[in-house]
Task: inverse folding
């Protein structure tokens, strides 16, 4: 077959080229060939009519799955650099005139009057005791509670004592710090789970106390109590308050908890909702 092209009104015959093996063909020739010669039968398995029918992605097993992570790696407070950043953020917010220099930093669990656990960073300074609820997920300070040391008047040391009907009875030593023994909590404050008007705070040992050696010294409740007593005595001598003794009253006795049922605290404690930790598909 010959191709004819018109150039400047003259008929010109183009030479016919013979197709050789391995020589590329024009698109038109390739199209015609594909219609005449369909793809071989042995290639049909590569192009099924419905390639996605009956296919589902395969879940590959990971070497470091959630089930294999040790317990200490689930707590965000033990992740590299997290605790150091939290201490630096909170220290920058303190008032040198009102708080003074930071003496020590601690990690404890606060047990509120409804028996719920809350993770706390505790700072002991020259003039204040500060309890911080730090957001280890967003890496920002959520709440900072300040107690002047010369306001502290009573320390209770001992086991937590619950009513017989309580569903969640915590075991272990606790420390209750009171700063206004002459003002008993009101009825509304005791029955309000979000009340912050109670004149005391109860601390217990954090679960990470025996998991990581680098933070174990920051979770020792007995050492903290001894240092707190000394700082409170110095604060009472430097800034005495009218009608207050020269030092705190230390009582070694069970600490009463008015949790008569505690269903919500039972569920919260079992799931450790008061701690920032990895919970798999359930979030933080």
Result:
């Amino acid at each position: 077959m010959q191709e004819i092209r018109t150039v400047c009104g003259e008929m010109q015959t183009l030479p016919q080229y013979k197709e050789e093996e391995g020589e590329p063909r024009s698109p038109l020739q390739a199209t015609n060939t594909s219609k005449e010669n369909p793809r071989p039968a042995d290639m049909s398995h590569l192009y099924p009519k419905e390639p996605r029918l009956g296919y589902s992605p395969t879940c590959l097993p990971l070497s470091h799955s959630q089930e294999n992570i040790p317990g200490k790696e689930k707590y965000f407070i033990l992740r590299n650099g997290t605790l150091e950043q939290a201490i630096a953020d909170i220290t920058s917010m303190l008032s040198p005139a009102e708080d003074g220099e930071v003496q020590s930093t601690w990690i404890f669990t606060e047990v509120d009057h409804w028996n719920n656990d809350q993770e706390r960073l505790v700072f002991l300074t020259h003039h204040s005791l500060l309890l911080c609820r730090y957001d280890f997920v967003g890496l920002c300070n959520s709440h900072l509670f300040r107690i002047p040391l010369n306001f502290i008047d009573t320390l209770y040391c001992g086991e937590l004592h619950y009513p017989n009907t309580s569903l969640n009875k915590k075991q272990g030593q606790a420390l209750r710090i009171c700063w206004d023994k002459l003002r008993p909590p009101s009825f509304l404050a005791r029955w309000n789970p979000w009340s912050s008007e109670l004149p005391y705070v109860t601390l217990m040992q954090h679960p990470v106390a025996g998991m990581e050696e680098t933070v174990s010294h920051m979770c020792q409740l007995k050492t903290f109590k001894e240092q707190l007593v000394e700082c409170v005595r110095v604060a009472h001598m430097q800034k005495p308050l009218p009608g207050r003794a020269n030092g705190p009253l230390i009582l070694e006795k069970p600490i009463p908890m008015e949790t008569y049922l505690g269903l919500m605290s039972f569920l919260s404690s079992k799931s450790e909702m008061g701690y920032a930790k990895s919970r798999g598909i359930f979030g933080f």
Notes: The chain is about 20% helix and 25% strand. The helical segments are 27-36, 82-91, 187-191, 213-216, 221-238, 263-271.
